[in-house]
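#data-curation
PF: Archiving a pair of folding outputs for the training set. Convention for this channel: one message per protein, sequence first, structure tokens after, nothing in between. First:
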Amino acid sequence: MNKFFSIGLGLLVLLAAATAQETSLVTITKVIKEVAVDRSKDLPQSSAKLPKFFDDDARRGETYAIYWAAPGSGLPAGVTVLFEYVLENAPDVYALHIQYDFKTEGPRKALFTIPEKHYRDGGNVKAWRVRIVLAGKLLAEQTAPNWKR
């Protein structure tokens, strides 16, 4: 019985070490809140009625840039960068994501713009979390100091 327990424990330790090594391969180097974007100046001014794809939420937004790096050998297609955030006056956790449908290598930059209706109704982002995931495995995570979820 002890022999089987030792083998099982050994396999568990190897699995934990492999997972830790895989997690350390991907790094999130920095998360930067960029200046709020006002895209209304880019919209046509001559027409009173804007085309459907120019809705109000696309005009302005609080933007976050996520700088991260894939390991030297790269990562296969399917890597997802998930940006979760909580607003000052809203209890909900919102999420935005980018999925890379191609092999990713080296340094990358993912941009996430918070829709205007979210921060208009709920205030500015007060806390955030960034996760990089592949096939259900967490490869890297970084949180704001005040993230509590």
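PF: Second:
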Amino acid sequence: MKQFSYRYVALLPLLFALFYWGLSPIAEFINHYQTQLTLYFLEWGLKEGQLQGIDIMVNPHYKIIITKACNGMIPILVLFAAILAYPVEWTHKVWWMFAGYLVITGMNIVRLLMVAHFVKKQPDFPLYHDLFGNLLLMLTGLLLFYLFLRGTRVYVR
């Protein structure tokens, strides 16, 4: 358990430096792609004209801006660090990272649609985005990691 903790604590900032923070061209490319993918799928769930560029027009006086922090990469990288830190075979890790990416990306889109819908009815953005939306993503990540652990055989080193 100690080795998992040490690996996780080391992998988390490394993954963020490589794939999220603007420290590398890889991070800029991946975040641009992830944001564009998020916007593409958001358009399916919003009314025509409601998505304008990176803005979700909730009403004529209120919009939600989809920034890099809204593209789902943060919970994806937290899950990836946990999966990579755990001592199991690589094929299992790769499969769960792929599945986790798809599930968290999908849940992030659901989260953003939920926030836009509820903010339109009751304008309490912090409640819906910061509390309910982020809680949804955290619980999704924890459930995915739990399912990952359930299907593993630990390799003791």
